[in-house]
Amino acid sequence: MALYAELHRHLGGSVVPRVLWRYFQRHSTNLGQKFPEYQEFEEFYTKPRNTLDEYLELHTLVESVQSVETLPYFIYRLMRGAYIFENLAYLELRYTPYLRTPDHLSQSERIDQMAEIVAVVGKASRVPEYPIVTSQILCMHSRLPYEVNKAIVNLAVQSRDYVCAIDVAGGDTHYKERLDEFIALYDYARSLNLNTTGHLYETTDGCYPELLPYLMRIGHGIQIPLSHPELLSELARRNQCLEVCPTTYLKTGTLEDLRQLKIVFDRCFDAGVDIAICTDNAGLHNVRLPFEYENLLTQDIIDFQQLKACQNAAFRHAFAWPYGSQPPASLLHGLLQPEAPALAESVSN
User: Fold this and answer.
1) Average pLDDT value over all residues in the chain
2) What CATH topology corresponds to 4-318?
3) Which residues form a coiled coil (predicted)?
């Protein structure tokens, strides 16, 4: 029975190493020739990087092969793994649609093609044999022009059947010079009743309190409890949820030890701030959501009661979960309850 909700997973980083390697081999790409043996490719693809910017460069490797034609191939395998190996009942996939369009086209042509990308991702995500509730988060990007980012917001509004929110990504260091732009875009999105999240307070370079009032959830946000705990009461008042992705911080060099997250969880629980535990880039990390849970438990960063609270918070803050705040376990309990009297009667007879 699928039980979990994943609120922060990038389409580019979701492709597990073996699937990506097989694709490169079958299509005789440069990377396929560079890494004829799988083990070498896995080591290259999943090894830790020194900085967030260096880590994000790996996204371009996958974006270059995710097109209108190939997205169904990758998404089918993503959905299959999410259902069979991760027990996901709900999944929000985030990505920048502009970066899945051919780069030889003009900017206006690429903007026009984004709607087709969203439709392809939406249809490919609905796989009957792997019944997961899915939705998309469209990412504005710190290195894209204002016109493209505004077009992404407008596309999200026009594609509510497939899209539940917007985000900003591309490395939080790069927001600083364009902060007014992103504030205006988020304000515009909220005026159109669009849900919002954003990569913020992930690193010490990404602390922009001016953006916080426009976000319903915060992508990562770990620097708030670590370095700016005075903000936690305001987050609790706004009912903002942190999307914490444990393995990411080791892969990007943001943290040296996973146990540093104990402060994050303890301070958030004390302040009444919800946390949803996520994977971010499950393929890049070669770590699935249940293993994120297990790592936090075995290293005594959280206990089972706190894990349950985080799992419930993920459904409560999910933008497109159709059953309100009810997680699948409570729905299953409700389905089983009516059978109890009938079972008792059959036993007594």
Assistant:
1) 90
2) TIM Barrel (3.20.20)
3) none
